[in-house]
Amino acid sequence: MSDSHDSPDFIQHLIRLFYMVGGVLVAGTLITVLIDVLFHMPLPLAAFIGLSIALVKAGFVVAVFMHYKWDKKLIMITWTMVLTFIFFAGMMGLIMWAEGDAPKLNRAEMSIYWVVAAALLGFALPASFTVLTVKLLSQPAPVEAPAPKAKRVAKKKKR
Amino acid sequence: MEIPYTVKPRPDTGLYNGKLGIWLFLASEVMLFGALFSSYVLLRVGAEPGTWSMGLMNITVGAGNTMVLIASSMFVVLAWAELKQGNLAGYKKWKWATIACAVLFLVVKWSYEWPEKFKHYDIWLNDTKVLHGKFEKGYHATASREGKSAEEHVNGFYTKRFFKEESKLSNDNFDKAWTNGTLALQGHINAYEEAQINVEVTGWKADAGVSEADAEKVLAKLNAAGSATALLKDGGTVKEKVGYDEAKRAEYALGQAGFEVALRVEDYEKVPAHPWVWRTKRVNEDIGGKPRVRSIFLGLDHSDDGEGHHEEIEIETRHISRLSAFEPKHSTFFGIYYTITGLHAAHVFGGIIVMLYNMLPIGLALWHKDREQFTNRIETFGLFWHFVDLVWIFLFPILYIL
Fold first, then answer.
1. Which residues are CB-neighbours of B5 under 8 A, at least 6 positions away?
2. Cβ(B291)–Cβ(B194) under 8 Å?
3. Residue of B84, B157, B158 to mutate when probing chain A, most A C-beta within 10 A
4. What is the spatial distance between Cα A139 and Cα B88, in angstroms, rounded to a whole number?
5. Which end of chain A is more exposed for a tag (fewer CB within 10 A), N or C?
6. CB–CB of B66 and A29 under 8 A?
7. B260 contacts B206 by C-beta, under 8 angstroms
8. What count of other Cβ atoms lies within 10 Å of the Cβ of residue B350?
9. DSSP letter at B317?
């Protein structure tokens, strides 16, 4: 949380948002269950819908509950998570490469289109997350004087 | 030692140190859970048709627990917002609510959801003919009520259970599993037929180093049926129709006293068994080899006679190729299920400990010393807690629904 957002009004605004996001998460869970109870669909489609809803929920948690949305300045967090993802994807890629013969992703029962769609999705979602993050970061910082920095420099000089 | 930058952001990172620390920790957690999620996907994609035991989860309980965790995630951030406004009483209120939710989550999981799994059994039969017969008997009542043939009913039920999709494709998988005998009967074990064993002595070795008097003492201790002298001389039945454990104990004692002992199964007795008792007695380890348990009585799930009773069918142990509760050893699915949810539950448990610490005087002391630092501490804990919630948000659809 950056210092400019400490005003009581803003906290009240945040609290309203927290309740809203709580509602969204509950609704997301209900929708997931209802879809499962009401329809029986092929696994790839079910996986697509289920995981999409989960991703939306996760997005809300990260953006609002973890107040990432207001932490635009925090490039360290972004780099930590982006590099983690790249490292992790690389490790998984290595495993897939080494064990290439074990899981048959294009099993006869599964249409190749679904496999391609899943692969694209698996690539597109993290990629779009990264692009969005970079875009967010490249925006000008919210109105904020470099006051804390100046203060600290002053303190240091005193010591 | 004073830890620097607990309140003000560090100039080069733009974060206070605690926050950077918790995000680095979360990055490592992402990899830990990510590896398990990837394992799940690889195991599932590589599974043979009919061996992925989906559809055994209780979706209502899972969805309820998801709600509880979502609520706790909201409460923890509200607690932080109260601190931000300088309201300690409000913080305590929301924090207790968070702890209550976390405890409820674990109580549901550890005292209901998992134990419920541990007393459900799958029984794989080693003969497809027997399998067909048992299916038709066990599922007849429900099937006839719904106006379906037994086969249609079983087919539909098991197709859903294993493959979770109503398509031509899943029917093929079902047929494959049906022919391979990888399908299993599911239910509670209500009773078993335990052997009643006669303990007989066929002779007594005088040169075994035990005196006649001592051997007679052993017989007296066992409350032997016949006269001691006659048993020593000609042999005979020492105990009649006793249970397996008692027979084994008698066999040992008599063997020590120089007797030659023979155990003979005289009869079988039906012993009612609560699923838990069955499990703790571990009688199932004997299944197949020894004559100790001749058959088990399985109360079938998803099958009742119209009056709410579960249909009970008798299955002889010689027909059983494998028997397992829904434990980790049951299948790859349950193996990875308990691994991931167990690790997640451990995180919830750790979170409860930290939350309690932050509610006790020792933790609250920091609030009275430095309010901003305490607020930041609660924020970093909140980040961890949201991550735990986040993991469950993905676990729920993957393990319960898909």
1. B16, B17
2. no
3. B84
4. 36
5. C
6. yes
7. no
8. 12
9. G
For residue A113, the surrounding DSSP H or E stretch is helix A112-138
Arch. (CATH architecture) of B19-118+331-401: Up-down Bundle (1.20)
Q: Which of B37, B7, B35 is nearest to B402 (CA)?
A: B37
DSSP per residue over B349-402, as a string?
A: HHHHHHHHHHHSHHHHHHHHH-HHHHHHHHHHHHHHHHHHHHHHHHHIIIIII-
Give the bridge partners for B121, in sequence order: B187, B325
Q: List the single residue in A with minimal CA-CA distance to B81.
A: A11
CA-CA distance, A101 to A75, in Å (whole number)?
A: 40
For residue B288, pLDDT beyond 60: no
**Under an 8 A CB cutoff, do B63 and A95 touch?**
no
Instruction: Judge contact between B348 and B106, C-beta under 8 A.
Output: yes
Mean pLDDT of A131-155: 53
pLDDT digits (tens, 9 = 90+) for B73-118: 999 999 999 998 989 999 999 999 999 999 999 999 999 999 989 8
Flag if A103 and B46 touch (Cβ within 8 Å): yes
Mind listing the pLDDT tens digit for each residue in A95-110?
Answer: 665 555 544 554 455 5
Q: Can you state the angle between helices B17-45 and A75-98, rounded to 10 degrees?
A: 20
- Chain A residues within an 8 Å CB radius of B78: 15, 18
- B 59-88 residues with CB < 8 A to A: 59, 63, 66-67, 70-71, 73-74, 77-78, 81, 84-85
Smallest Cα–Cα separation from B331: which of B34, B55, B28?
B55
Token pair belonging to A146: 């470099």
Delimit the domains of chain A by residue range.
Answer: 1-70, 72-140
CB atoms near residue A68 (< 10 Å):
21
- The residues near B337 (Cβ < 8 Å, ≥ 6 apart) are B399
Looking at this predicted complex, what is its ipTM? 0.74
- Residue of B127, B119, B120, B155 whose CA lies nearest to B316: B127
At residue A39, the pLDDT reads 76
Alpha carbons A155 and A120: distance in angstroms, whole number: 52
User: What's the mean pLDDT in B149-164?
Assistant: 73
Q: Which of B34, B114, B54, B126 is nearest to B332 (CA)?
A: B54
Q: Do B259 and B203 meet the contact criterion of CB atoms below 8 Å apart?
A: yes
For the packed helices A43-60 and A8-38, what is the interaxial angle rounded to 10 degrees? 170
Residue A66 confidence (pLDDT) above 70: yes
B380: which residues sit within 8 A by CB, 6+ positions away?
A: B18, B19, B21, B22
Where does chain A show beta strands of DSSP type E?
Answer: none
Containing B325, the helix (H) or strand (E) segment is: strand B320-325
